User: Fold this.
Amino acid sequence: MNKLEREILAILEEDSRTDAAQIAVMLGEDEARVREAVRAMEKRGTIVKYTAIANLDEEEDECVEALIEVKIAPRGGSGFDGVAEEIACHEEVKTLYLMSGAYDLLVIVEASSIKSVSRFVSECISTFDCVLSTATHFILKKYKIEGALTVGRDKKRRLPVQA
Assistant:
């Protein structure tokens, strides 16, 4: 990845709504060059998805999120990847990482209730013959999501305007 691509990614990670014309101005680059760099990163899979960060703690939503640590004995032939691919196919799974440390996989799930998460762990994850143990942690409150603060600031405060 070259310097221009890194700079473009930094801007898009801060606000994915920033268009090529705005990025070009911010970086002092040609708009066509910025568009081509973005297209190239999309094609290579460097840019996977454009998304919004939602703070649903402020809503009356009944969604439950949990982190599930999974310790597995890697399968012959496919190792960790085979198990991870099977777990990733489930609709409840929002994020899945291979980790170092006491557990091998970190699975972030979203479901309608604590009971649904529990059922997912007991009826899905624990049924794999290679799963040695799991630890489930429910998310109670989010203070920061993807670098954006969600609490601790006066949301109704107006930004200062300078003349």
Observations:
- The mean pLDDT is 88.
- The CA atoms of residues 24 and 30 lie 6 Å apart.
